[in-house]
Here is the input.
Amino acid sequence: MKRAILLAPCVPVLVLAALVVLVPAYSQDKPAQREPDVIYVPTPQEVVDKMFELADVRPGEIVYDLGCGDGRIPVTAAKKFGSRAWGFDINPVRVRESLENVKKNRVENLVTIKQQDIFELDLSKADVVTLYLLPRLNVKLIPQLDKLKPGCRIVSHDFNMEGVRPKREINFRPSDGSREHRVYLWVTPLEKESPGR
Ligand SMILES: C[S@@+](CC[C@H](N)C(=O)[O-])C[C@H]1O[C@@H](n2cnc3c(N)ncnc32)[C@H](O)[C@@H]1O
Here is the structure.
């Protein structure tokens, strides 16, 4: 009885702590606002692993996947590196798939999925940004990527970012013998090919 009385004032704090731990994998479930800029094509899991290897992701770093599809990149970041990871997609169907994936893999405490246009995002919290978009969309992201803190890594599956010199680029063929994939790495501050751009 005495113990119950002593614990009573702690209950609201405990409830709040539980909510903070359980809530991160949410999204505003809203209708599609416009068409996606690129269709959904998933990155094969072995290529996802290669992207993280190239980005040299360290435990606890914050990962943003811009256009997250079924959420495989943020889920991998959480499971493999204990990263806090955000996935953003404009398509509500993809957002729903991502949320299911997060739940299936029990990483709700680390992964947040949002239905959002990537061109309206503030990327300042990210340590690592992953992309599988299109060359012209990578270029359109430059003003946002320019605002990343120094030392952030950006990895792009298959597509370059014209006008910005990559630090590394590799070709990689998954073990199933399917096509060769290219992965690009940039490290901030971005190195412009013609300064002033
Ligand atoms: C090629 S898929 C890549 C999916 C995932 N990143 C992967 O590598 O497996 C591109 C994704 O970007 C999303 N997308 C396209 N335009 C977008 C935009 N403006 N804002 C947010 N997401 C967008 C699409 O809905 C699609 O799911």
Remarks:
- The chain has a mean pLDDT of 88.
- The radius of gyration is 19 Å.
- The pocket of S-adenosylmethionine is lined by residues 36-38, 40-43, 65, 67-69, 72-73, 88-91, 94, 117-119, 132, 157 (CB under 6 Å).
- Residues 143 and 174 are 33 Å apart (CA to CA).
